Each structure stands twice: as structure tokens, then as C-alpha cells.
Amino acid sequence: MRDKTQTNSAEPGDRLIRAGSVVFFLGAVATLVTLAPLFLGTTPFPTYMFGLSMLMGVGFLIAGAGVLQSIAAGRRRARRAGGTGGTRGAGSAGSAGDRQAAASR
Q: What angle do CA 47, 49, 50 make, to 5 degrees?
């Protein structure tokens, strides 16, 4: 059976990952701009520019939250597709309670 999900469909967490990557990129640019005067020997930027460099960490956290949300949605989808999980294969050993019940007979 072919997967019915289209390649361009948005999965849960995709927006967070995209937003996090944009924020991370802005933080990386701010870091480069902030550190450039230190290497060029010019006057350093004001302190708030160093605060903008923290956007890298914020973007990383946002993207990480999106990845976790995507993982959780995938697990929910797999759980729904697999049923309740109460059935066992023909070769399974069974639980400890099953073994005890069989041994007492």
C-alpha cells in the first residue's frame, strides 16, 4: 500500500523547525556582526548587540521543540496504525504471569 502523505504536506512541528532555523540564522548573523569589530580593531558595538547573539540559542531551542513535537506526532500515528498492541506474535514467549499459569497446570 502506498503512503498517502504528500511530500509537500506540513507535519506537526514543521513550522517550529522553520521558525527556529530562521531565528538561529539571525542570531548567527548578529554574532558575526558583533565579533567583526573585535577582529578588525574598530570600536565595538553596544552591549545589546551581544544580547542579539543569544538568538542562536533561542532558535536552537525552538527548532528542538519542533523536532520533539514531530517525534511525538509520529509515535501517536504509529500507535494508531498498530492498534492497541495487545496481540502477540506466534513465537512470543509471553509474560511472566502466562509462564506461571502454564507451570502450575
A: 70
